[in-house]
Every structure is written in structure tokens, then in C-alpha cells.
Amino acid sequence: MSKSIKMLAAFGFVAVVSACTSGQTEEEFVVVEPEPISVEPVYTGKYK
């Protein structure tokens, strides 16, 4: 009986460890440079 309990505990431990490590994947992060909302006005002269 003791061997069967140890085998069941070992199998359960292996199952839990494999289930926890299979879900860990690296996520990809995409960085997009935002465009300016508006362009600052450029001085072109007094009456232009």
C-alpha cells in the first residue's frame, strides 16, 4: 500500500508540474511610435 501511495503522489506531482510549465509562454510586445496629433506652426512671416 505504501508503494502505491508513493507512486500516486509522484504521478500527481509530475502532472501538476507539467501542467504549470506548459502554460508559460513569452508574450511578444510590439512598440508603435505614436504620430504627433498636430504639427506645430512654423513662423513664415508677418502676413503669410
From TrEMBL:
Organism: Sulfitobacter dubius
PROSITE patterns with a match to the protein in the record: PROKAR_LIPOPROTEIN
Protein name: Lipoprotein
Claim: Signal is one of the keywords in the record: yes
Signal peptide feature range: 1-19
Swiss-Prot/TrEMBL keywords: Signal
